């Protein structure tokens, strides 16, 4: 097979996923808690760590700082799982505004979109149309679009839409989650055009039928797929803050003779800033995923789930209100 599962042995059992993380991922979907947290001004310091600001101008300001340090960005307008087509249209227009200004404000930037924000849960065809509108704007203005991968409830449709646009927009990047059992098969299914991927571990709470749930096994699978992506795919991106994964990518690239500029590391705004600088100094390309907007709650809760120590800070900020 073109790409095989790293190992079938010792796959995670239901009980092996860390409970606080899974609880937090449920909390991320709770609308009442979202309303409380969003109104609470004491949450602002922790929000500011992970979110570049409320509006596009804030995002450009944060981008300028990162660009000075030799780091590119991918702009992410916060907001997901919209329930009205008007919201998905508004998000599409906001993204178009960003794309039109990329060349003037920060050439080299990309935009990252969630298809649940472009309407995939309401009308997949309308969502595909919105994505095409962004891809056309990106082609006109010399920008690139990256498609985030969300929960498996929209994952199949996301991949199907990505495949449908790929022939006309082969530079479009798609996030691929190492934790998903389906991932090797998905990668093998790209027979004509090899995709540009952003390999990530996977941030959503998934069943053990759908995903590996043991952190060590996800990391091993990430490392296996990293090497594989360097061998088989054009310009792969590695979205990780994990030192051991970063090291594996560096070593595999050196062994395979892949130039440091032929792939990139991607990290989230507010996470491992020193490591980003170090990688730039070593000659690697680095891109920061830069979220902005007011609808930060689900995004922030996923970040809390990745780093439960931060949760204490967040809870204290809520209680401090
Ligand atoms: C650029 C980018 C784009 C992403 N896009 C997607 C996507 O489209 N779909 C998706 O499912 N997931 C996405 N993710 C999230 C990803 O799936 C992981 O949940 C996340 O990156 C944590 O995994 P890790 O590889 O950093 O390793 P981990 O083992 O989780 O973390 C390694 C170390 O990094 C630091 N760290 C990690 N996360 C945080 C944090 N939140 N705050 C502070 N420190 C932290 C800690 O020091 C930690 O010990 C993306 C991640 C990145 C970097």
From TrEMBL:
The keyword S-adenosyl-L-methionine does not apply. Keywords: FAD, Flavoprotein, Nucleotide-binding, Oxidoreductase, Proline metabolism. Its cofactor is FAD. Pathway: Amino-acid degradation; L-proline degradation into L-glutamate; L-glutamate from L-proline: step 1/2. GO terms for biological process: L-proline catabolic process to L-glutamate. It is an enzyme of class 1 (oxidoreductase). It comes from the Bacteria. GO terms for molecular function: nucleotide binding; proline dehydrogenase activity. Substrate binds at residues 114, 302-303. Residues 62-310 form the Proline dehydrogenase domain. Binds 1 FAD per subunit. PANTHER family: PROLINE DEHYDROGENASE 1, MITOCHONDRIAL, PROLINE OXIDASE. FAD binds at residues 149, 177, 201-203, 240-241. Pfam families: Pro_dh (PF01619). It comes from Arthrobacter terricola. It catalyses: L-proline + a quinone = (S)-1-pyrroline-5-carboxylate + a quinol + H(+). InterPro entries: FAD-linked_oxidoreductase-like, PRODH_bac_arc, Proline_DH_dom, Proline_oxidase. Its EC number is 1.5.5.2. This is proline dehydrogenase.
